[in-house]
Amino acid sequence: MVLGIDPNTNFVYSLNDIYIPIGEKHETSFYNVERGIRVVVDKCWKEDKELMMEILGYHAIKCPSNSEFLDAFTFFCENR
Question: Most buried among 19, 42, 63, 79, using CB within 10 Å?
Fold first, then answer.
């Protein structure tokens, strides 16, 4: 998986930089891309909170947002 990362902030880019290009590449809407990611994040949260908190790097009390998860996942993968 390749994500767009701003080298100055290390934050994953937003809607215009991730959801729209992926949607265009796969001939679907950015909304479907966002929803698909949200469904996966929610399912992972429900099935393995321990792993999700390891990826997030902190004790979370609720399911992370897409952007929270993508930022944390990118950092997690880069630092393994």
Answer: 19
